[in-house]
TrEMBL record:
Native organism: Nesospiza acunhae
Entry's Gene Ontology molecular function annotations: complement component C3b binding
One GO BP annotation of this record: negative regulation of interleukin-2 production
Gene expressing this chain: Vsig4_1
UniProt xrefs under PANTHER family: V-SET AND IMMUNOGLOBULIN DOMAIN CONTAINING 4 (PTHR15466), V-SET AND IMMUNOGLOBULIN DOMAIN-CONTAINING PROTEIN 4 (PTHR15466:SF2)
Protein's name in the database: VSIG4 protein
Chain ranges of the Ig-like domain: 1-112, 125-196
SUPFAM superfamilies per the UniProt record, alphabetical: Immunoglobulin (SSF48726)
InterPro entries membership: Ig-like_dom (IPR007110), Ig-like_dom_sf (IPR036179), Ig-like_fold (IPR013783), Ig_sub (IPR003599), Ig_V-set (IPR013106), VSIG4 (IPR039939)
Amino acid sequence: AFLDLSSVHQVTGTWMASTTLPCTYVPTEDFTQQTLSWSVKQGSSTSTIFRRDSSGDHILLSKFRGRVSVPKHNPGDASLLIQNLEMPDSGHYTCQIIWRSRDNSLITREVTTIVKVVKVAATKPIIRAAEPGLTLPAGASTSLSCEAGGSPPISYRWFRRGPAGTAELLSSGAELAWPSLRPSDSGTYFCEAHNR
C-alpha cells in the first residue's frame, strides 16, 4: 500500500501507434522522489531508456529519442508514453523509483511490464462525415475538423474547390480554422485522409 507502484503486467501495442506503460504511486510528504528510471530488457541485455533526477529528464537510448516521455507536472505519475512503436520495441520494461525519506534513508521500488508490439491488418482511412453545410455571419470564427479511422499514422489535407473543378490546398492538418470569416471564404471545402 505504502509507496507501492501500480502497473499492469502486460501491454499490447500496435506498430506505428502509441502506448502508455502505467507506473503510478500515491505521493506522501514524508518521501521525496529522487530518481525515476525506465529500463528495457531485450534478450539478455538491459538498457536504461529514461532517467529523471535533480538535473532533469534524460533519454539515454538513442532509438527512443523523440519517442518517449513521462508526465512532468503530475506527482505520483511515472508512466512512460512510447510513440511510433517499432517492432523491436517489444521487451520487458521496468519502472524504478527511488525516494528519500525525512531521515535521509532511501527507498527503492520497481515494477515490470511486458510490451508486445503487434502489426494489425492495414485498413484504409474512413472519414467520419461532418454536417453537410454551415451558414455563418461574417466576422464569426469557425473551424472544420477531419477525423478518420484506419491504420495509423493518418495524415490530413484540407482543400477548397475552385472553379472548373480545381482544388486549392489550404492546410496539411486535421483542422481548418478561421479566426474571422469574410464573405470571400464562402465555398466548398473538402478533406483528404491518407495513410500507408
